[in-house]
Design goal:
- Two copies of one chain form a homodimer.
- The relative contact order of chain A is 0.17.
- By secondary structure, chain A is α+β, with helices and mostly antiparallel strands.
- Chain A has eleven helices and 13 strands.
- The first copy, chain A, has a seven-stranded mixed β-sheet with strand order 2-3-4-12-5-6-7.
- In chain A, helix 1 packs antiparallel against helix 2.
- The first copy, chain A, is globular and about 50 Å long.
- The interface between A and B is large, with 93 and 92 residues.
C-alpha cells in the first residue's frame, strides 16, 4: 500500500539528516521551546524521517507544530504535573505541552518504575500530538525492556456500522529488543490507514485500493480510485465481515487506556467542547522480571528469523517482520539523506527566512 | 459475520445453564480435576455459552479438554509455580495445567499486585487452552479495574505475504467497568476469525464472505463460498492493502508478551518439538491509580452511549459497542436456556453414560 505513496524521484530533494535536525531544532527554539526540549522534539521528528515514516516526519508535522505554538494551542513552557502516582503507574496532566516532548519524559518515568516493580505505565492527557508512537516505545530498548505507546486522537474514524467519526486513528506501537536482528517495532493505526498518509497520497496523486475509505454516509467505497475530496475513515478491517469491529474495538481500548482512565473525558466529547487535545499511554516491561534477558533476545532472533524465512505466497518475494523496512530505511537514509518533496524544502527556506533562522538546506 | 453461523432453530435444544454447569463440573471431576478447579473450569465454559460465544463454550471445547486429561496431555494436578516474581509482575510455569483453570489464578495475582502498585501483569507458559479470554479479563471488573487477557496458541495463521502458518489466532481481550451500561468487553482474535468458529460454520453449512481464508498456497480466497475442506487462516485485515500487517503484527505482540517473555520459546518452534502448548498473559490496571473511579465509570457510560447513538450507515440499524451483544445474550440465555446442537446433547448423554456420570440433560 505504502509503495503507492512513495515520493517520485523527480520531486525529491535528498537532505542530510543532521542538517535537517539542526534547522528543525532551531525552528522549535524560535517559537519559544527551551533548547533541550527543542532538540528532543527534533529527534522525534527526525527519527520518523530516518525510519521512512514520512507521515510523521518533518514534511507532514512540523508546520502543524509550529503553528500550534504560534497560535497558543500548544504551550512551549507547559506546567505539566503528575496528578496520581503509584509504584508502577502515574498519570500526567500535560497542560497542553506537545506530546513529542511530554511522552519521552513519561516513558522515562515508566522505565524507572519498571526497574523497581517489573512494569511501568504512565498516561498523559491535555496533551499535544505524540508524533511517531514507535519513538517512545523504542526508548525501552536500551534498557532491555519491551516498550509500548498508544495515542488517542480527536475523532476521524467511523465505528463499525456508523456514519459519524467517533474515534481517532489511535495508534499502537510496541518495541521489543532482539540480539543480532533489528528490534521488533510495530507501529500501526487502528484505522485502515493513518489519516496523515492520505494527505501524502493525495499530494502524490496515488490510487487507493478498495475498502480504504468510506463515503460521507459511512458506506465503504469498494472501488479503487484517487483519494476523494471528502471521505470518512474506516476502522482497520474495513468491513464487519473482515473484522472492522477489531480495529474499532482496539481504537476504543486506546481511548480508554489513554484518555478515559486519566480523567480526561473522551475524544468525541472533548472535541465538541474544545477542539484538539490528545491523550497518550506509555508502558515499559522489564524483561528480567519475567525471564533471562540473554535467552529472551536469542529467542527473539530465532522468532524473527523463523518469520522472515516463511515461504512466501505466490506473487510475493519475502515475508517481512515489523520494523524490518524501517531498519533498512535507517541504513539507507542516514547514508544518502532524507528524501523531501521539493515544496517541503521551499517551505523550510521561506519559514526560516520569515522567522530569521539560519537555513542550510 | 457471526449471524451466518447461528444455530438453526430446528437443530437446537435449549438447555438450562445450571444443569449444564452441573454436568460439566462432574465430567471434569471424573477425569481427575479437584472439585474447586472443576467448578472453575465449568464456570469459564458456561460463561462463554451464556454470553453467546459458542465457539468457546461446551460444544466446541469440552470434548477437547476431557480428551486432553484422558490422554495425559493436560494434567489434572499440575505442580504449577511462580518462577519470577516482582511487585507488579510474575511469570508462571503452569506444568501443563489447563489454561481455563490456571489463568484465573494468575489473574487473581495480577489483581492483588494492581492493588499494591497500580498495575499487575502475570504471564504463564507450558499451559493448556485459555478458553474465552474475556472471562479472565472480566475478573478485574468487580475490583474497579481494567482487565486484559492475551493468549498465544500453536501456529494456524499466515504472516502477511506468507504461505506457511506461523502464529496462533492469538486473541486479545480487554474488559472495562462502566456505571449503568454493560461493561466494555472486547475479545478478538488477531486472525480474521477464530479458527474455532470455522468448525461451527462448517457444521452449519455457512457461506463465507470473500477474504476470510487463504488457499493452501497462501493466496487469499476472494470469492464467497462454503468453508473449504483445506484452507489457511489469514491475519485480521485479510490483505496487506487493507491492513493484514496489523493483525499479523498484533499476533506477534501477543506471542512475545505471552510466550517469549516467559522463556517458553515461541509457538512455531515449540510445535515442531512438542505439539500443543499455549502461553497466556493477564493484566489488571487499578483505575484509582490513574483517576477517580466514580468519574471514570460515569465517563465510560457517556463514552459507550455516544458510540451507541452514532448515526448508522445506510443498511444498518444500530452501532454496537464491544460486549453489548454478549450482555444481551446473557439476559436471554440465563432465562431461556443455552441453545445446543442436538448432536452436542447426544454427546453429553453418551459421554456421561461412558464415564458413569449422572446426566440431567
Amino acid at each position: 500500500m505504502l509503495e503507492s505513496f512513495v515520493l517520485r524521484e523527480e520531486d525529491a530533494v535528498r537532505v542530510n539528516h543532521e542538517e535537517l535536525r539542526e534547522v528543525t531544532t532551531a525552528l522549535f527554539q524560535k517559537v519559544g521551546v527551551p533548547s533541550d526540549d527543542a532538540a528532543l522534539a527534533a529527534d522525534v521528528l527526525l527519527m520518523a524521517d530516518i525510519r521512512g515514516v514520512d507521515s510523521h516526519g518533518v514534511s507532514n508535522m512540523l508546520r502543524n507544530y509550529l503553528t500550534g505554538y504560534q497560535t497558543g494551542r500548544i504551550k512551549p513552557l507547559p506546567e505539566w504535573r503528575v496528578v496520581r502516582d503509584r509504584p508502577s503507574t502515574a498519570n500526567i496532566d500535560a497542560d497542553e505541552g506537545l506530546g513529542i516532548i511530554i511522552a519521552p519524559k513519561a516513558m522515562e518515568m515508566a522505565i524507572e518504575k519498571a526497574k523497581k516493580t517489573g512494569m511501568g505505565v504512565v498516561t498523559m492527557g491535555r496533551c499535544g500530538h505524540v508524533g511517531m508512537a514507535a519513538y517512545h516505545a523504542m526508548m525501552a530498548l536500551p534498557h532491555d525492556m519491551v516498550g509500548v505507546c498508544m495515542s488517542a486522537a480527536p475523532p476521524q474514524v467511523l465505528p463499525t456500522f456508523g456514519a459519524e467519526p467517533r474515534l481517532g486513528t489511535n495508534p499502537i506501537a510496541v518495541a521489543v529488543p532482539a540480539l543480532d536482528e533489528a528490534p521488533f517495532v510495530l507501529d500501526i493505526a487502528t484505522s485502515v490507514v493513518a489519516v496523515n498518509k492520505f494527505r501524502i497520497a493525495k499530494r502524490l496523486g496515488a490510487i487507493l485500493p478498495p475498502g480504504m475509505v468510506a463515503d460521507m454516509e459511512g458506506t465503504p467505497i469498494m472501488e479503487a480510485g484517487p483519494v476523494p475530496d471528502e471521505f470518512l475513515s474506516l476502522p482497520a478491517g474495513s468491513l464487519r465481515e473482515l473484522g472492522s469491529h477489531k480495529g474499532y474495538g482496539l481504537a476504543c481500548v486506546v481511548e480508554i487506556l489513554s484518555t478515559v482512565i486519566g480523567g480526561f473525558g473522551f475524544a468525541a466529547r472533548n472535541t465538541r467542547e474544545s477542539p484538539g487535545g490528545f491523550a497518550h499511554y506509555v508502558a515499559a516491561y522489564d524483561i528480567d522480571a519475567f525471564s533471562d534477558v540473554g535467552e529472551f533476545k536469542q529467542t527473539m532472533d530465532d522468532f524473527l528469523r523463523t518469520l522472515k524465512s516463511t515461504k512466501p505466497a505466490p506473487g510475493h518475494d519475502r515475508v517481512l517482520v515489523p520494523g524490518q523496512l524501517e531498519a533498512e530505511n535507517t541504513v539507507e537514509r542516514t547514508t544518502t539523506g532524507i528524501p523531501l518533496h521539493k515544496e517541503v524544502v521551499e517551505w523550510f527556506r521561506s519559514t526560516c527566512a520569515e522567522l530569521d533562522v539560519p537555513c542550510s538546506l
